[in-house]
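stage 2 :: seqdesign
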């Protein structure tokens, strides 16, 4: 905890949050200082402008926070995509890097439909030191003929300087009428 208090990135984020609160307070004061006689559409427009400013500020703070917490030189992102899904109905995914559990994700029907329509989900975003690593993904769901199906996929990869992007892809293997689980690196 002491390490977080002394982290310059966290201190910068705290300073930006304080500045954002001061700006919002100033907007609030200017809104309340307007004469009430002009309270119709003028006030509504000011409130809408304030909402837009807050949304933009929130977006900028989110981007800054992501850059501070996950710098590009140590960043690793893992994505999941699904091809048609005729031979496999996805239920959950578990990820491990170097035998350390990263995430478990349980899917809803709505999320599965979005993936089947071509969506891509970011399963994990984190930091990883340079060097050789091993990613293991366990897929659980309903396989061919309605049976429970659990399968794993493994890939060894080298993390260098700069961000690393990996994709877990579930595709239908038409020849064997079974799902194939692939892991590929994005360039």
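stage 2 :: out
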């Amino acid at each position: 905890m002491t390490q977080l208090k002394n982290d310059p990135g966290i201190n910068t984020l705290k300073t930006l949050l304080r500045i954002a609160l001061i700006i919002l307070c100033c907007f609030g004061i200017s809104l309340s200082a307007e004469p009430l006689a002009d309270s119709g559409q003028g006030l509504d427009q000011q409130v809408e402008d304030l909402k837009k400013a807050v949304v933009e500020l929130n977006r900028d703070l989110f981007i800054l926070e992501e850059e501070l917490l996950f710098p590009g030189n140590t960043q690793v992102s893992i994505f999941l995509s699904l091809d048609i899904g005729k031979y496999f109905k996805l239920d959950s995914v578990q990820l491990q890097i170097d035998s350390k559990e990263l995430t478990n994700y349980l899917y809803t029907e709505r999320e599965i439909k979005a993936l089947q329509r071509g969506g891509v989900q970011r399963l994990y975003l984190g930091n990883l030191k340079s060097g050789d690593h091993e990613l293991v993904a366990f897929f659980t769901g309903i396989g061919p003929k309605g049976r429970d199906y659990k399968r794993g996929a493994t890939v060894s990869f080298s993390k260098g300087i700069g961000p690393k992007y990996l994709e877990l892809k579930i595709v239908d293997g038409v020849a064997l009428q079974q799902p194939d689980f692939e892991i590929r690196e994005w360039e």
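stage 3 :: structure notes
- Residues 41-69 form the longest helix (29 residues).
- The radius of gyration is 23 Å.
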